[in-house]
Amino acid sequence: MSLSLKSNRVRLAAVTAALAVGAGLYTAGAASAEHSVPRTDKEIPNLTQVQDKIKAFYGDTVDASGQHYASADSNYAKQVADIEKKAKGQLEKVVKNRAHAKKGAKKPAIVVDLDDTTLLTYNYELQVGFHFTPESQDAYLKSTDMAAVFGMPKLVNWAKSQGIEVFYVTGRGEHQREWSARNLKNVGYKPVADTDHFFLKNKQTPPAYLPCGAKCTTVEYKAGTRKYIESKGFDIVANFGDQYSDLKGGYADRTYKMPNPMYYLP
Question: Which of 56, 79, 122, 193 is the most exposed place for a label (fewest CB within 10 A)?
Fold first, then answer.
C-alpha cells in the first residue's frame, strides 16, 4: 500500500470491502454486487456501521493515553498469521532448494510493502477519521512510529537470516525515507532499509529504469521496481502487499495479499 497515493482513494470501494471481507467485492470496488452507481440509499452501507465493523475486525483497544491500537488476538491478526504461515512454508522450500542450486543461480529475494504490510496504519487511520491527507501523514510519520503488522518482523527477519534478500518497496514519497527507515528499525525489522534495499516513489527525480517516470501508476511503479531488482541478479520468490496494485505486473514467483478493509488503491 502506498499512503502517498491515498489522494486517489476510492473510499466507496473501501466501504464495500469492509462489509464484504472474503466475499470478493474488494477487488471490484463496487458500491453493491449489482450496481457500480447506487440507485437508492439502501445499496450504500452505513458509514458508521462500517467503521464499527472495521474496529471490531482489528480488535480495537485503547491505552491509558486514549490511543487506539489493534489487538494481537483480533480476527485481523489471525488472518495475518494464516497468510504468514503459508508464506513461511513456501520460503522454507526456497531455502531447501537453494542448497542444491547450481552455481551462479539467482539469489532469492522477497519484496515487502510498508503500509499495512510491514507497518500497521490502524492508529493513524483512526486519528484522522479514515480521511488521509499528505499533511497529516507527514506529521504522523515525523513524530510517531506505526506498530508492526503482527508477526511480520519475525517472518522478514527469519527470511534474511536464511540468506533471502529483503527489499522494501513503497509508494511513500522519497521525502519520507528517514522517518520510514526509523520506524522499521524501531519496531524490530533487522534487514536494514538502506538505499540499496529501500525504494520510495520519487516524482521529482524518477529513476531511469522506470519508463513511465513521474507518471507511473502504482502497478507500473511497483512492477517496474521489481523488474529492476531482478535485473540485479535476484529472483523475487515472494511479494507481499495489502493492495492488489502492489502485487500485479509480474516479477514475483508468489504473491501474498495482506488484509486491509480500510481503503482501496487502484
Answer: 56
Q: Coil, helix or strand for 68?
A: strand
Angstrom distances, CA of residue 13 to CA of 168, 229, 238: 26, 32, 27
The residue with cell 499512503 is 3
How far is CA 62 from each of CA 58, 65, 71, 72, 199, rounded to the nearest angstrom? 12, 8, 10, 13, 33
pLDDT tens per residue across span 159-178: 999 999 999 999 999 999 99
User: Taking the complete model, does pTM exceed 0.85, yes or no?
Assistant: yes
Q: What pLDDT score does 40 carry? A: 94
Q: Tally Cβ neighbours within 10 Å of residue 231.
A: 10
Largest Cα span, the chain = 63
Alpha-carbon torsion, ordered 90, 157, 225, 235, to 10 deg: -40
Task: Judge residue 3's burial from the number of C-beta atoms within 10 Å of its C-beta, 0-12 exposed, 13-18 middle, 19 or more buried.
Answer: buried
- Non-local CB neighbours of 262 within 8 Å, separated by 6+ positions: 14, 18, 54, 116, 121, 122, 125, 130
| Contact criterion met (CB below 8 Å) for 224 and 251 | no
Dihedral sign for Cα atoms in the order 180, 95, 105, 226 = negative
**Alpha helices by DSSP H, 99-210:** 122-127, 134-143, 152-161, 177-186
In this structure, which long-range contacts are made by residues 9-13, counting pairs with CB atoms below 8 Å and at least 24 apart in sequence? Answer: 9/132, 9/263, 9/264, 9/265, 10/264, 10/265, 10/266, 11/130, 11/263, 11/264, 12/44, 13/264
